[in-house]
Amino acid sequence: MNTQAVLSIYRFEMARFFRTLAQSFISPVISTSLYFVVFGAAIGSRIAEVEGVSYGAFIVPGLIMLSVMTQAISNASFGIYFPKFIGTIYELLSAPVNFLEIVLGYVGAAATKALFIGVVILATSALFVDLQIAHPLAMIAFMVLTCISFSLFGFIIGIWARNFEQLQLIPLLVVTPLVFLGGSFYSISMLPPLWQTVTLFNPVVYLVSGFRWSFFGLADVPVGLSLLAILGFTALCLGIIWWIFRTGWRIRG
Amino acid sequence: MAAMVQIQDLRKVYDGGFEALKGVNLDIEEGEILALLGPNGAGKTTLISTICGITLPSSGSVTVGGYDILADYRKTRGLIGLVPQEINLEPFEYVRNTVAFSRGLFGKPRNDGRVEEILKKLSLWDKRDSKIMELSGGMRRRVLIAKALSHDPRVLFLDEPTAGVDVELRRDMWDIVAQLKADGVTIILTTHYIEEAEAIADRVGVISKGELLLVEDKSTLMTRMGRKELRVDLQDPLTALPDSLSDFDLALAEDGLSVTYAYDTAAERTGIARLVGAFSAEGIVIRDLQTSQSSLEDIFVTLVHKTEDAA
Ligand SMILES: Nc1ncnc2c1ncn2[C@@H]1O[C@H](COP(=O)(O)OP(=O)(O)OP(=O)(O)O)[C@@H](O)[C@H]1O
Ligand SMILES: [Mg+2]
Question: For ligand 1, is residue B42 a contact (CB within 6 Å)?
Answer without folding.
Answer: yes
